[in-house]
Design a protein that fits this description.
With 101 residues, the chain is an all-beta fold. The chain has strands spanning 2-5, 8-17, 27-39, 42-53, 63-76, 79-88, 92-99. The protein has one domain (2-99). The chain has a seven-stranded antiparallel sheet with strand order 1-2-3-4-5-6-7, with no helix packed on it. It is globular, with a radius of gyration of 15 Å. It starts with a strand and ends with a strand.
Length: 101
Amino acid sequence: MSGTVGQWRVYRFLGHFRPIEGSVPAYTFLDSFDLSRIVRAWEFGLSSGSFYLSSGSFYVDETWNPQMGPVVIGNDRAGAWRFSIRGGTNFEGRLTRTVSF
């Protein structure tokens, strides 16, 4: 889900991973829920996410794992670059590229 209202933009991605085989357990995730303010070709805001790790997980057992931090987004004709740093139960830095066509 994504949307724009005035100078504000929201982006949300919710999913569930179910392995076909292997040792990685099933998990549900909200990755990401971002709210940003548009300033020309840039956006500045907050990025949050949370993972529900099922039994047998390497990190956390049967609990939500929330993360939050700043996000900077650069938009161009082909899509967007998104850089976020999120902390909480775990810490991550993330650089992603979205191509729109």
